[in-house]
Amino acid sequence: MLLPMKTTKISLIVFVCAAGVSIGALLQAQQPVPASLATGFNNIREDALRADLTFLASDALEGRMSLQNGDEVAIQWIASEFARAGLQPAANGSLLQPVPLIEYRGDRENSYVALRRGGSETRWKFPDAFGSYHSDVDVTAEVIFAGYGITAPELHYDDYQGIDARGKVVLIFDHEPQETEPNSVFNGTGNTRYATGRVKILNAQEHGAVGVLIVAEPNRKHPSNQERVARIGGSETRAAPLPSQALAEDALHTPAAIISDAVGKELFATAAATPSELQAAIDRDLKPQSRALPDTQVTLHYRNLFVRTGTSYNVAGLLEGSDPKLKAETILFSGHHDHNGISGTEIWHGADDNGSGTVGVVALARAFAANAAHGQKPKRSLLFVVYAAEERGLLGSFYLAAHPVRPLETTRAVLNFDMIGRNETESDQTKGLLDIPADTTNRLNLIGASYSPDYNRTVVQENKYVGLDLDYRFDHDYALNIFFRSDQFPFVLDNIPAFWWFTGFHPDYHHTTDTADKINYGKMAKILRLAYLTGYQFANETTPPRFIANPGGNPSKSD
């Protein structure tokens, strides 16, 4: 799972389904699976999941770092298992879709953000100003403040109204307006697609900006990015920093930096209002407070210790549907195969993140293939993809969304599995920010329900055969940036119903201790059985789930 982007306290939301059936009643009413689906359902077994995950998270695969040998072994294993299940090659006659990458490591000692004002210059380096780019950068321009950096015409909101960002460095707040307001048009206390840094930088780029500076909102109710990284620790703060990676061909090509509160305060000194006042005015009225910052010129100066190219792979296999017309439509099952590698003798095993999702997609491919062999082939086609380089920025899924192996407009639903193997427990990342239920041994977090109530109804309907506790807390999160942090998100940007299936954080997240012996294989099997039944319904139902582009305020329940 990708590192977070932002961080407040979320109240536990107890889910009650549309019919008013409680979770307890749902468990008591658990029903036997229809005979037509039993072969595939019973094919998902704990012993097979344990064997596969023990291999993927073993020392031999050295933490599956993208572009390193261990991840190459994982790629070949997934492809061989897809082939054994009888899946067809989905990527131009191959099970492997090449993902061209640039790998680089920023030179923190020789990279900086500089402010020139009143004839003098001030420079800031990491951690006060943190940015990188896959080639050397020297950008100098005047600075313009553009609020939260959001253009959302359907919400009648545009931070770029009345300003000209062409040739400028744009200074913007992180997150989005009114994020603590349950009735905000920005999806209440949940995230919208506009809150993520990538979308904001792309928006600045489209307005002609040559650089972007992102500062945490001064009136925030969450830790800043710098504080958040320090809380996670593990691979994020290890002595030899993880290398960065980028797509060799990416729509995003504008350099950006995250700056500290102190740097932001200095930049705002000529704004005729404090950062706190500017944020308060935007949040109160949803009206732009954007403006040029007089006598404020900034330089982004980035250098790298190394830059090299390489190729990783999305592994993509197809089970073609049985209906002559509907087989042109696609149900997508996905996860990511990479993790955070090895440093010296320390291995980041990545059993839950995301060996569990990788093994899960393989198990589902086997289950659907087994059921099809018994004459129960779904009407729509099923596409199984395990992505490259998620930990480096959702790179494989963004690549597939830009270079689809089947037309995106045919994709009716995405079931993405990232960390589906553990019981959720308090960790340094979540302490004081997230209320965790006392018992999570049977709990599944579903992320994305507000964007597709139809999808959610199908999951709830099929859960009568499995009996999991379904939890929607993370759809109401503005603390941990969950909505952006896995491979369903690029498809949400393309208006496709896409849920992230997730069992929650734990102290081993992005640490060497995320090992296969800590997995709850019984729960993992139940989650995959629910996904199997749900995916089968998506593949066969007359009307596929709809996507709701702007869910609006925070509803009292997820359906």
Features:
single chain, 559 residues, alpha/beta, Aminopeptidase, Glucose Oxidase, domain 1, 2 domains, 10-stranded mixed β-sheet, 8-stranded mixed β-sheet, 26% helix, globular, disordered C terminus
Q: Approximately what portion of the residues adopt beta-strand conformation?
A: 15-25%
| CATH topology descriptor of the largest domain | Aminopeptidase
Helical content band: 25-40%
Number of domains: 2
Task: Provide mean pLDDT, rounded.
Answer: 93
Count of individual helical segments: 13
Q: For this structure, what is the CATH class of the largest domain?
A: Alpha Beta
Query: Which structural class best describes the helix and strand composition?
Result: alpha/beta
Question: What features would you describe in this structure?
Answer:
It is a single chain. This protein has 559 residues and is an alpha/beta fold. The chain folds into two domains: 23-102 and 310-540, Aminopeptidase, CATH 3.40.630; 108-302, Glucose Oxidase, domain 1 (3-Layer(bba) Sandwich), CATH 3.50.30.30. The protein is 26% helix and 22% strand. The chain has helices at residues 23-28, 35-43, 46-56, 69-85, 197-206, 225-232, 261-267, 275-285, 351-373, 395-402, 453-462, 489-492, 521-540; strands at residues 88-89, 96-106, 112-117, 120-124, 129-130, 137-145, 151-152, 157-158, 169-173, 211-215, 244-247, 256-259, 291-302, 304-319, 330-336, 342-343, 346-347, 381-387, 411-417, 443-447, 469-471, 498-502. The strands form four sheets. Strands 1, 2, 11, 14, 15, 18, 19, 20, 21 and 22 form a ten-stranded mixed β-sheet that branches. A hairpin with a 2-residue loop joins strand 3 (112-117) and strand 4 (120-124). Helix 4 runs parallel beside helix 9, helix 9 crosses helix 13 (521-540) and helix 11 (453-462) crosses helix 13. The longest helix is centred in the middle third of the chain and has 23 residues, at 351-373. The protein is globular and about 75 Å long. Residues 5-29 and 555-559 have low confidence and may be disordered.
